[in-house]
Structures are given as structure tokens and as C-alpha cells.
Design a protein that fits this description.
Largest sheet: 6 strands, parallel
Helix content: 40-55%
């Protein structure tokens, strides 16, 4: 398996470039052998356009896992918040109405339950050993887990964890995979992607490591950049078609001065 990385800052035509590569891959391998995922369903569908008739291989990573695990028999915990709040009022959660196709907005922090839930999900997304978790988060996790088990529910993070542990192949056993906005993927998500990739000819990870905005979900550009790959497997899209050159130069100089 070969992992290619494409770095495309805003306005450099990353979506267009990826769409062209997906069409080429579909013409070589066949549309059924191409997997395409992005951070939202709309973004993933924009990548493939009309090029892939099998839309079960297109969408968010959560949606792809949800379908692969058997969506007809899965009840999602985040859709049952009213029941949780009724049985655990001390840990009440705000109902954000998230779906497997749209997870890209920040969870409210209106209650103690919201804060504990968010911290728990970040620790899971970063694959932090539970022995290192704060005790209050661990206590919340146990209550949340017991509640899910009692009602036969899974949450959004379970979808990725279960796919990682139970599914050696991506749905349909595709030959190639394209993943966009990867700077906002978590370590857990990229661990799943790379496990599936081990059975593919190649994958393309595309993103902008200077534009990670979903750290509150546990995302980190380090997961995108590690492990290192040889320079011949990297491509940078340097030309911005959206902003003036002077603005780009000033922005780039500012970014280069940032430290971790």
C-alpha cells in the first residue's frame, strides 16, 4: 500500500484536483473500487460528483462505518439524549441533533455533562489509555457505557472504534481510497483509515496541516503528518486562485512563524 499526501491551502483547487484523481481512479479500477470520504456528506459528494454510482462508498467516515456495521440494526446514543437526561439528570447533556453525515459543529458547553462528555470523546479520539484519564471523566464514561449497553446503543465514537476492531477491510473492499480535510481527522479515525488502507493499492490523504479547526473533537495535524512519508509521495498545491498574491505571502509568513 502507498500513502500519498496532498497539501492544499485555501483556494488552491484541492477539491478540483481530488475530483480529477477520483475520476481517473474510477476509470482504471471501476467506480465500485473507489472509496471517498470527507468531513461532511456534502463535501464528500462534491468530490465525486456523478463519477461514482455506488454512494455507499462515499460520505463521512462515520456514515461509512455506520452503513458497514449495519445501520438497520443500530440505535445511535446521541439521538436518545432525552432518555439519558431523564436517567442521569446530574450529567444532563445539551441535545445538538448531530447525525453521521454532519458532525462538524462544536458541542455546547452549557452543563457539566456537556463538559465531561466532550472531554471523554477527545480522550477516546486520541486513543489515550483509560488509566491516564481524569477520575471524573472516567466516572462519566462508565455511566455512559452502562447506559448504552442497557439500551443496546452505540455512539459516534463507537462507530469508529468498532470498525477499527471488527472490520479489516473498508466496505466493498475498495482498491483505492481518497480522504479529504484530513487535518481534522483524529488519531482514532486515521488509525482506521490506515488499517483499511493496508488492503488497498493506495490511498490519498488531502488537507492543510495549518488549518486544523476541530481540535475540540480530538483532531490534531500530527495524526495527518505521522508517520513521515518520502517526498515523492507528497504533493503541495501552491497556487491560490482565491486570494491576491500579497495576501497569500503575508499569511504564509505568519504561519511559518508559528510554533507548536
Amino acid at each position: 500500500m502507498t500513502e500519498f499526501r496532498v497539501f492544499g491551502p485555501p483556494g488552491t483547487g484541492k477539491t478540483t484536483w481530488l475530483s480529477d484523481q477520483i475520476k481517473k481512479a474510477a476509470s482504471i479500477y471501476g467506480p465500485e473500487q473507489v472509496l471517498a470520504a470527507s468531513f461532511t456528506k456534502a463535501a464528500a459528494m462534491e468530490l465525486v460528483g456523478r463519477g461514482l454510482p455506488n454512494k455507499s462508498n462515499v460520505g463521512t467516515l462515520h456514515a461509512i462505518c455506520y452503513r458497514a456495521l449495519g445501520e438497520e440494526r443500530i440505535k445511535v446514543a446521541e439521538t436518545m439524549i432525552k432518555d439519558w437526561n431523564g436517567t442521569h439528570p446530574a450529567y444532563a447533556l445539551s441535545d445538538q441533533g448531530a447525525t453521521v453525515d454532519e458532525l462538524s459543529y462544536e458541542r455546547p458547553s452549557e452543563t457539566e455533562g456537556d463538559n465531561l462528555f466532550s472531554r471523554m470523546q477527545v480522550l477516546r479520539a486520541q486513543i489515550i489509555n483509560k488509566e491516564l484519564w481524569p477520575l471524573e471523566v472516567l466516572a462519566f464514561y462508565q455511566r455512559w457505557t452502562d447506559w448504552k449497553e442497557n439500551l443496546s446503543l452505540i455512539d459516534f465514537t463507537d462507530m469508529i472504534e468498532m470498525a477499527y476492531h471488527d472490520l479489516d477491510y473498508a466496505p466493498g473492499q475498495p482498491s483505492v481510497g481518497f480522504f479529504d480535510e484530513v487535518q481534522d481527522f483524529t488519531l482514532l479515525q486515521l488509525s482506521l483509515v490506515r488499517k483499511w488502507a493496508s488492503h488497498m493499492d493506495y490511498i490519498v490523504l488531502a488537507g492543510d496541516d495549518d488549518q486544523c479547526i476541530y481540535q475540540w473533537l480530538g483532531a490534531t495535524p500530527d495524526a495527518f503528518l505521522s508517520p513521515p512519508v518520502a517526498s515523492e509521495y507528497k504533493r503541495v498545491l501552491p497556487q491560490s486562485y482565491r486570494i491576491p498574491r500579497r495576501v497569500w505571502q503575508l499569511s504564509n509568513a505568519w504561519v511559518e512563524g508559528l510554533t507548536a
